[in-house]
Amino acid sequence: MSEWLVLTIAMASACAVVLTTAVLSNRRIADDDDPSQTPDVIEYMTMMIGVVYAIVLGLAIAGVWEGRSAAQESVRLEAQALHEVSARSAVYPVEVRDRIRKDVDAYVAHVVGAEWKSMTDDGNLTEEGTRLLDRVRADVTEYKPRTDHEGQAYQPLVDQVAAADDARGSRGQNAGATMPGVVWFGLITGAVVTVGLIFTLQIRRTFRELLLAGLFSVLIAFLLFLIWDFDAPFGRGISATTAPFVDLFPRATGG
């Protein structure tokens, strides 16, 4: 099921529930009921709860967006570090240079293909990816420089492999959901309470009041969907992409 279909169903369902409840509640209101007699304290509490919930929603959206940005940054750093390994190996003998570049390309192809799918489906890295990166590390660290020029390039290459490994670890940590279950419980409960409180203001069956109630519920549903979509940085529609790998390694990724 696509994210757009999920969003449409969520917003339509929220709007339908609110409007149906408003219409049914209105039928039980006596003809002589005066909505202007709503106590001021109820209006005040409704407003304050709405403001507090809006702040919570804003913080949640900022948190998942930051997690998504961190996930994309880890991908960029990993791709850049591997690109530096491939480029700086040019000072080594041809057979060593070609072996390093071949193993880097094999690792990148695995990340873009099988490992990315594993992160999307299961939120985990793969053992094969670890093995391929270890092979790149072995290519770099086990070679003994024969000239001063090669010696000067050796440590930067080792550092870049370490940077790629660190970025890969960060990518793995960001692969799963970032919002704890208790936060989701609070967000959903807050949404129910916030939407439910609008009925304390005695909504009438006029077009204007029903329209505003429906739009309010749709907005809440959309914001919750936005948090859910951002919550898995590699798994849903608005997610981190393989663009850094594709841009720097077009041959290995078929880009």
Q: Whole-number average pLDDT?
A: 84
Which overall shape is indicated by the principal axes computed on the Cα atoms?
A: elongated
Number of domains: 1
The biggest beta sheet reads: none
- N/C terminus separation: 27 Å
Counting copies of identical and different chains, the oligomeric state is: single chain
Query: SS-based structural class?
Result: mainly alpha
Number of strands: 0
Radius of gyration: 27 Å
**What order do the SSEs take from the amino end to the carboxyl end, as H and E?**
HHHHHHHHH
Portion in helices:
over 70%
Beta percentage is under 5%
Low-confidence spans: none
Tally of alpha and pi helices: 9
Task: Please provide a brief summary of the model.
The chain has helices at residues 3-27, 40-88, 94-122, 127-141, 148-173, 181-197, 207-230, 243-248, 250-253.
Q: Could you explain the architecture of this structure?
A:
By secondary structure, the protein is mostly helical. The protein has one domain (3-27, 38-179, 201-253). It is built from 9 helices and no strands. The chain has helices at 3-27, 40-88, 94-122, 127-141, 148-173, 181-197, 207-230, 243-248, 250-253. Helix 4 (127-141) packs antiparallel against helix 5 (148-173). The longest helix has 49 residues, at 40-88. The radius of gyration is 27 Å and the shape is elongated. The model has no long low-confidence stretch (mean pLDDT 84).
Give short descriptive properties of this protein.
9 helices, 0% strand, mainly alpha, 255 residues
